[in-house]
């Protein structure tokens, strides 16, 4: 009986130690959000925005011009590359490098020039619908040291296949 009690006690201690180890190592989670893939949104009738979130936690984003009659691309207006991280319901873009075409007009990717970035990080509150194919982003900025939602409208992106 004493042997059974000691064995139960040892297994109990191991279970408690394992639980404590797991909870101590827990990082802020992405709440199971997976945004890997290509996402697109219409900004206006003449511009679209696209994000590609890669599995190595890097991203590329493009703003492209769209011909209002043919609905075909007229070229790239701007491009941004960097890293991304999901923390709870927040998307954090970092190490951002921006490129822009001459006069902020659509053109070929070969004519993109490095932009004078005014920031290298950006944060968004993020929601993803139940099917995982509609991504909504709300830009977050700091005003006088306080976090504020600077954009009254949300950007809604649809996953591309």
Per-chain topology:
Blueprint: H1 2-25, E1 37-44, E2 47-53, E3 58-66, E4 73-87, E5 90-100, E6 113-114, E7 122-128, E8 134-143, E9 146-149, E10 155-160
Descriptive account of the structure:
There is one protein chain. This protein is mainly beta and 161 residues long. The chain has one domain (37-160): Lipocalin, CATH 2.40.128. The chain has 1 helix and 10 strands; from the N terminus they run αββββββββββ. The chain has one helix at 2-25; strands at residues 37-44, 47-53, 58-66, 73-87, 90-100, 113-114, 122-128, 134-143, 146-149, 155-160. An 8-stranded antiparallel beta barrel has the order 1-2-3-4-5-7-8-10. The longest helix is centred in the first third of the chain and has 24 residues, at 2-25. The radius of gyration is 23 Å and the shape is globular.
Identify the strand order in the major beta sheet: 1-2-3-4-5-7-8-10
Output the CATH class name: Mainly Beta
CATH topology: Lipocalin
Shape assignment: globular
Question: What is Rg?
Answer: 23 Å
Overall mean pLDDT = 77
Unreliable stretches: 1-29
Q: What's the total helix number?
A: 1
Relative strand content: over 45%
């Amino acid at each position: 009986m004493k042997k059974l009690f000691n064995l139960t006690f040892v297994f109990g201690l191991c279970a408690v130690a394992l639980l404590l180890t797991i909870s101590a190592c827990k990082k802020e989670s992405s709440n199971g959000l997976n945004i890997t893939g290509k996402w697109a949104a219409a900004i206006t009738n003449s511009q679209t925005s696209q994000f590609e979130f890669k599995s190595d936690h890097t991203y590329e984003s493009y703003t492209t011009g769209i011909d209002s009659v043919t609905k075909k691309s007229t070229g790239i207006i701007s491009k941004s590359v960097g890293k991304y991280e999901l923390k709870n319901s927040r998307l954090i873009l970092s190490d951002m490098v921006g490129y822009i075409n001459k006069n902020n007009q659509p053109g070929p990717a070969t004519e993109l020039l490095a932009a004078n970035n005014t920031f290298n990080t950006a944060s968004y509150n993020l929601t993803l619908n139940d099917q995982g194919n509609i991504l909504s982003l709300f830009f977050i900025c700091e005003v006088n040291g306080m976090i504020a939602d600077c954009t009254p409208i949300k950007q809604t992106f649809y996953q591309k296949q």
